[in-house]
Each structure stands twice: as structure tokens, then as C-alpha cells.
């Protein structure tokens, strides 16, 4: 990566002296922004361009070159890439389009083969290149580089789309946000967004990481990078698109339907402290909030405004993002009253009124009093109309106050460019500036969320692996070419001491009667087949079976209905199960996302999962805290606590089931695709829980 991001010299293949062309722009921007390395234009048409010697071919360059920049017709790229390989150039950025994105996968694979042959690393094709602002490496033809000077700073941006990446870069620059790196990966024939993220996270000059993602290809690299970012306290803000539930290859279970790629990313991001942006405004707003590197110690926000209405609006928006707007103590209010007009308000929101802005340093003193107080953890300052010199003074007062505290301070200034002198003061000082109260509140809410994440962060770790059990489970899964039947699934769950129903498999009516007699009535009877997953639809379930005669009749009926439902089905027999007393039905599931790995699902059963989809996801491995959080996070959590005179359920038993499934996911590895435990009957507190049904799907079935 160092040769890509910090090359000592670059060759521009097909360089042009016409700076309106793509190849001309690449050279133009390297010169314009003072690239610190050597530039080698390559084009047999010219002997020199802009005072630089121009070479007829890559081979003619007399020195070693770290990086080739290639923007020529797609059909010519393989030959040029070979020339670069022969020259010993180990890195290349391929801007050219006309590869897999247009359907020509063979041409793109040829690039991959050449890169492998010469031990090269590639960015692209079909990309807009990359920037290393600190060295002047503007390896792109994006028009956003027409600006006279690029503002450097601690933000790094990695994007799978060149257009979106440089759009975001331009918006960040317009907002006064300094950028260190921009990497666009295009078709990712070789280097992926995950590798780009890994580099910028580890770079000591990066504080905040932004990313536009369509779909990651290297989940393991991304997971390691996310963990590294969490360890280093570097927030990642991701604009993830393409969140439809596609690409699922599992059996048609509830879990598979509810854990599509969008849900899996959301779950993983939440666990790893990654902020999921909804649009470009979120990206810019959150970048501004995190750049100062100040995190609140709690969620108490102070609001200072010159408008009572704006103060109320900010209070409402702040509470929506889980912040408190506490009333100030009488002692603190008394201090504030000394520096604001008599008709202002010192309660919180603090209304300093427009008049205070004409009273010398009183406004600034008010900010300093509030920032020094231990009653507040952060401050939002809301300015309305102020122009010219007055706007400049307000901006300077706020900036000086912000620079003198370790508490976060953000500004909501809801006017246009009439207040530009004030905006400039804030941007120069790096004070986060928002042009709406809601965006300001959302920003400080994000700071609190990340502070809370950092306080509780610890790297995910699975429990100790039972090697014998692991080998046995993986062996069963590898031998399976289909979903496991309920009984086979429960045999695996039992290896993890999960509370499955007491049950036996009957292969004849007489056998079923004998089993039921020994178990005691009533019993439940179910068809057991890996090919009939929806047993109720097939007429393959009977409950409250209360006599030997009824058992015999139900056995014949269930077998007949199963064969009619799916004549080709492998039917193992009929399960005779204990009948579990009523409780609260829950669902526990597991789905392996192809990129992010296994995700555990928990929710209430019945209508809650069928219609309301009231479930929560978390990535494996689960900690005990994760499992308890899952029980709390569903909308129907009150059902577990007991409602309308019903007892609370045994939540500890549910937690143990979640942890057991997490361990199964970890030990099952790539061979385990999905698991659906539905329902789990949660019994009253102290009485445990029972797994009534389940289906496990191996990866070999997909």
C-alpha cells in the first residue's frame, strides 16, 4: 500500500499536453498541487510537456518508478500493464472504463492475471484514482481538483464509486473539512475498499474515516479493520447503499428472510461503533463533529441561543437523540444572569437574546461559564441573524471559547452567506458548523453515542472451543447436502446443552404408542423430514394427543399427509415429543452473511415475527452483555417482563440459548449457513425455556 499511497515517482501513460483531456488533467493536477515526487509523462507524440521530459514508452524511463497511472482505451490496457510489469513497476491505477462494468469480464480477468504474473497491485479499473493530499499526489482527473488549494486534514475517504467519492471530497472541502486521503476502488480487480480502509485506519495522520460502500468483497479484512479502528478510537462513518435483502441462499426460514444484507450491515455497524450515514449531508456533518477529537463524558447538553423558539426546537431534537437538556442549578443560573440581559433566560436552553451580542464580551463570558460547569457535558450554540462585523465577532468569540475547552461545542447558524465572516472564523478554528438545529443536535448525539461505545468497547471473543465437538459438528454439516430435519438439528443443539424438548423418533404406529406411553400424555407428534421444513403447512403436526388410540391414528395421518405434500421427501418417521406448557413464544436464528459472517437473531414469535418483524440482530460472537441487550432491544420487550398480570419469563434461560447458538456458529464455521429455532417457549422465571422446533442448514445445500 505504501507504494500506492506514497510513491516517489509516477508514470502517466498516454500523458497529454492538452489539459482538457483526462490524461492532461492528471498531469495538470499533479503539477498544480505540487506533487513532491518525480513525474514521468509517457507518450511517443511528445518530447516534453510543461517542462517535463516525455518518454516514448515505459521501458524508456531511465529510473525506477513506483506507480503507473493508466487512462487509455480499455483494449490497450493489458499490453501497457505488461510493459509496466517488465519495467518493474509494482503498482498501477487504471482509470480506464470498458471492463466488467460493461460486461467484458474476460478483459478484466486478464488484468488480474497480468498483475499476478508480475506481482503487481492494482486500483481500478473504472475508477477516479486517489489522493494523498500531504504529498500533493493528486492521482485523479476529477474536476473537484480545479480548486487553487486543497485543504489537508485528518479525514480519509475510501469509496467504491469514483463519482460519489469525489463528490463527497468536494462537499467536505466546501465545508472547510481537511482531507488527508481519498481512495476510489472502482471495479476492484485487485485492491478492495477493505484494503484501502485498512491503510487509512492504521495511518497515524488519520483521525476520522469516511466510506461509500456498495458491497464489500473481503469481509475478513473489513472486520479486522473495524476492530482496529475501534481499538484506536477512530470513528468510521459509512454511506452503505444496496441494502436490499438479496443474495440469500438459505432455506426459506424466517431467519433467512429477516437477515438480508442491509440488516446484517446495520447490525455489524452498530456493534463496531460504525456510523451508518443516510446521505452526503450525514457524511459531512459527522466528519465535522469528530475532527476536533472531543467526546462528551455524559449526555447532558447545554443550549445557548438568541431565540427562545430555536432553543425549544433544539431541546426537542436533542432529546430525540437520547440527550438530556437539564435545568441548570440555581447557582449556575445566577452566574449566567450576570452576563445576559435581564429579560433573557438562564434555565437551559439559555436565551441570551440578540441584545447580548452588542454588549462587548458578555456573550463569550456566558459560553465560558457554561463550558466550565460540571453540570454540562457539551454545548450547542444557536445563532440566527447576524451579518458583517457582528457575525465575524460572534464567530471569533465562539471559536475562542471552543478552543479553550475539552468539551464538544457545535454551532447551529441558520442563515445564508450574509454571515460568511462568522462562518469563516468557525471553519478556520475547526468548530463544527451546521445550518439547521436538527443537524447540530444529531451531530452531538453521535458524539455521545461514540463516547458510550468507546467506554464499553472490548474486542469480540468467543468462548473456549471444544475441539471434539467442533470436529463432530463440522463433519455432520459437511456430509449433509440438505437442511437437517428437526430431530437431527436438535441433536446438534443438545451438544451445546441447549434445552431441546424431550423427544423420540417413531418409525411405526406401534413404536409411537410405546414411546407416548412411556413419556406420559399428552404428547406432540410431528413429521421428521429434511425435505418438509414447514410442517404445519404439510399437516404434519398434532398437539395435545392424549391416548394410545389417538397416537396410532395420528401417526398414520401424519405420514400420509407428508407423502402427499412432497412425494419425493425423505421421511424419517414421526417425532413423539413432550408437550411444553404455554409461555411466551420467541424465535432465535442464525444466518451467515457472505461478507460479515454469522449474525444471531432474536425476537418474539407468532405475529411479532410474521407481521411486525420485531427482531434484533447481532454479529457473532456474542458476549453476555450482547445477549442481554438483544432481549431489551426488541419493541416487545415488555412481553418478557410480564404484562397484564402474567409472570416475567426466564430471561436468563434465553440468554444462555443465545450464547449457545453463538458458540455453535463459531465452531460450525463456514459449514453452517443458517439455523432457525422457532419457537423457543420462554417459561415463567425460574422454569427455563424449551426449544420446540428447529432447522439447521449446511453451506453445502446452498
Describe this protein's structure.
It is built from 24 helices and 29 strands. Helix 3 (77-87) runs parallel beside helix 4 and helix 10 (280-290) packs across helix 16. A seven-stranded mixed beta sheet has the order 9-8-11-10-12-13-14, sandwiched between helices. Strands 24, 25, 26, 27, 28 and 29 form a six-stranded antiparallel beta sheet that branches. Residues 245-259 have low confidence and may be disordered. It has four domains: 2-241, Rossmann fold (3-Layer(aba) Sandwich); 294-456, Rossmann fold, CATH 3.40.50.261; 502-579, 2-Layer Sandwich (Dna Ligase, domain 1), CATH 3.30.1490.20; 584-701, ATP-grasp fold, B domain (D-amino Acid Aminotransferase, Chain A, domain 1). The protein is flat. The protein has 702 residues and is α/β, with parallel strands linked by helices.
